Amino acid sequence: MPELRKDPITGRWIIVATERAKRPKDYAAEKPVKQGGNCPFCPGNEASTPTEVMAFRGEGKAANSSGWRVRVIPNKFPALRIEGDLARRGEGMFDIMNGIGAHEVIIETPDHEKSLADLSPGEVEEVLAAYRGRSLDLRKDERLRYILIFRNHGRSAGASLEHPHSQLIATPVVPKRVQEEIHGAKQYYEYRERCVFCDMIKEEGLFGKRVILENDSFVAIAPFASRFPFETWLLPKRHDGDFGAISDGEIKACASALREILRRMKQLLTDPPYNFIIHTAPLQNHVEGEMHWHLEIMPRLTQVAGFEWGSGFYINPTPPEEAADYLRKA
Amino acid sequence: MPELRKDPITGRWIIVATERAKRPKDYAAEKPVKQGGNCPFCPGNEASTPTEVMAFRGEGKAANSSGWRVRVIPNKFPALRIEGDLARRGEGMFDIMNGIGAHEVIIETPDHEKSLADLSPGEVEEVLAAYRGRSLDLRKDERLRYILIFRNHGRSAGASLEHPHSQLIATPVVPKRVQEEIHGAKQYYEYRERCVFCDMIKEEGLFGKRVILENDSFVAIAPFASRFPFETWLLPKRHDGDFGAISDGEIKACASALREILRRMKQLLTDPPYNFIIHTAPLQNHVEGEMHWHLEIMPRLTQVAGFEWGSGFYINPTPPEEAADYLRKA
User: Fold this and answer.
1) Could you give the ipTM of this predicted complex?
2) Interface of B with A in 95-114 (CB under 8 A)
3) Active site (catalytic) residues of A
4) Considering only residues 43 to 72 of chain B, which have any Cβ-Cβ distance to chain A shorter than 8 Å?
């Protein structure tokens, strides 16, 4: 059972893998990204993954057989496990609990060679629909407080398998970064009685210089205080804290914008490694209108080094106005 | 002039390089680490760096000539600049100020081929003495609120020049990570009327299982909630918030412990990339005894990916008890 441990100074939680703990030699021998052939995510290899929890496939086809378009499975080596109870406890001055949660993999396409940017608009829509489906299902588990959906693309962005996939980790505590965002949004909300994200959308629309693209329901901007060069946020125009409440129409618009941004980044930045994450409201606790879900795309073009780790400051060598201009024209 | 921009949601500051901004092509063409030959940090090439601000060299030798043992220079491409004023201002809903600060490089040895782990105890002491010297000098500038000293080792930990060096960045705002640490330490202090770091040192000493090494004045531990495998904190036993107040005797003990940890990591983990940072109290504002300066060493063996960026959670595949055991025996 993995452990959740709390840093007694900052309150930051970390997950310690207690089974199959890595020894010093294991890091030196880190395997390269798995190439085709015996890829467990490829059609025909369904038996080599845990039993699927959801899939989009043709009518009348059996679960865990091929013929799927999007397939969601539990992670074979999960960071957190769904079985058991939290058993919150102390260990001397320290706080600890069992690593309860969910860790799932969303296999985005049967095609090993494609990336999310290469899929058709309809295919990207199904990926987002799978995100929504899992989000709505997992929140029934009352032990869970947060669902984080994310994607790692490229080895240096943490992707350890080549086959296109996203991941979902559901945690029994609200992550620190999300707490910080909600705290900040709440302060703004209390002061101005408006949502900070809605205000950003309006303000950026007015200036225009950091807007990358826009459609009926979504706007993509290079945020004013971008941590990373070419960082891009995709925001729904309709104020809603909960990603799970996205409508079918919004999924269509979101997929179209997301696909377009990824395609432009791929072309402009030569298929850069990137991470994207969806920030949404926590489960269970009510958020009073200050949260506004969104998707953050972080190309990994620079190294995060001592200064960033020590300070939480980021040095961005490309002003977001210029990044937006490049991405607008790409 | 670089800009400091504040994220309106989280309050996180970032530094935007406005001169020589990088274009998309510049990232693809990222240069490899500079090899010997025309290294600007090597003796004989003093004229190719900015004028030194401090050096340890033999008696009677001229500044900016060779013959130094440790040499401190302003960074040729500084993230922040010392000239000008802050000019705090708004831009619509956003907050911005000029990128005032200092960015210096501590060249640790004339020997291009060595790393900090390879230096003699006396040589490491002089590096720490240079840190202290610069810390005491820079705090005279009342615009500065924080001095962060850090070291990047290895390309993937952000080192862009091979010649052994550390860096110092002085900022006009207290960095977010430091604020968080102080906030947490303060909460603990108010609740228990004791320093959380002092308590950690006592508790770890009692258990022993996360202690890596210890001498008269310092203890090295694998922290209970280590974010990274083999993360190591070096803490002074004497309670003091201010690194600048380190005594000559403590410098000797700190250098001995730091050198020993780096040597063990180099051997055990095959010269891993790493960052280390010194966390100390902010300048100007008084901290009421809750801060306790320390040095955090973070080997970079795992990728920080979407989950970590999105959540602030870390997944550590090596429990700190096991890491400490390996490092104790190395």
Assistant:
1) 0.91
2) none
3) 165
4) none
| Spatial distance between the Cα atoms of A199 and A216, rounded to a whole number of angstroms | 17
Q: What is the mean pLDDT of residues A104-131?
A: 97
Judge whether B307 is closer than 8 Å to chain A, CB to CB.
Answer: yes
Reported as half-sphere exposure (CB side, CA atoms, 13 A), residue A136 has a value of: 11
**Cut 0.90: pTM above it:** yes
The average pLDDT across B197-219 equals: 96
Question: Does B203 sit within 8 Å of A313, measured CB to CB?
Answer: no
Chain B environment of A172 (Cβ under 8 Å): none
**∠ Cα B321 B324 B325 (to 5°):** 85
Q: Inter-chain contact A5–B200, Cβ cutoff 8 Å?
A: no
DSSP structure class, residue B139? T
- Cα dihedral B191, B194, B200, B203, rounded to 10, equals -100
Taking the Cβ of residue B90 and every Cβ of chain A, the question of whether any pair is shorter than 8 Å is answered with no
Query: What pLDDT does residue B26 have?
Result: 85
Residue contact A14–B159, C-beta within 8 A: no
Residues of chain A found within 8 Å of residue B192, distances taken between Cβ atoms: none
- Please judge whether A27 and B227 are an interchain contact, meaning their C-beta atoms are less than 8 angstroms apart: no
Q: CA-CA-CA-CA torsion for B204, B208, B213, B218, nearest 10 degrees? A: 30
What is the band of A269 on the pLDDT scale with cuts at 50, 70, 90?
very high
Residues of B recognised as catalytic = 165
Q: Please report residues of B whose CB lies closer than 8 A to that of A22.
A: 229, 317-318
Interface of B with A in 176-205 (CB under 8 A): 176-178, 180-181, 184-185, 188, 196-197, 199-200, 203
Query: Which among A281, A298, A300 has a CA at the least distance from the CA of A290?
Result: A281
Cβ of A9 and B181 within 8 Å? yes
* CATH superfamily of domain region B100-330: HIT-like (3.30.428.10)
What whole-number distance in Å separates Cα of residue B50 and Cα of residue B102? 13
pLDDT of residue B60: 85
Per the prediction, chain A carries an average pLDDT of 93
> CB distance from B270 to chain A under 8 Å?
yes
Q: Give the residue from B235, B307, B321 with the most A CB atoms within 10 Å of its CB, the best one to mutate.
A: B307
B300 pLDDT more than 80:
yes
Helix ranges restricted to H, B212-276: 248-268
> ∠ at Cα A240 (A231, A257), nearest 5°?
40
Tell me yes or no: is domain A3-20+46-174 CATH 3.30.428.10: yes
Q: How far apart are CA B4 and CA A317, in angstroms?
A: 12
Please write the tens of the pLDDT for every residue from B95-105: 999 999 999 99
Choose which CATH entry (1.20.1630.10, 2.60.40.10, 3.30.428.10, 3.40.50.720) describes domain A177-329: 3.30.428.10
Alpha-carbon torsion (A133, A75, A103, A304), positive or negative: negative
Residue B32 has a pLDDT of 55
- Beta-carbon contacts of residue B69 (< 8 Å; ≥ 6 apart): B55, B56, B57, B109, B110, B123, B126
A92-128: burial string, b at 16+ Cβ within 10 Å, e else: eebbbbbbbbbbbbbbbbbebeebbbbbeeebbbbbb
Question: What is the DSSP code (8-state) at residue B157?
Answer: G
The minimum CA-CA distance between B216 and chain A, rounded to whole Å, is 24
Q: How far apart are CA A134 and CA A129, in angstroms?
A: 9
Q: Delimit the CATH 3.30.428.10 region(s) of chain A.
A: 3-20+46-174, 177-329
Q: How far is A89 from chain B (nearest CA, A)?
A: 14
Cα atoms found within 13 Å of the Cα of residue A32, Cβ hemisphere only:
2
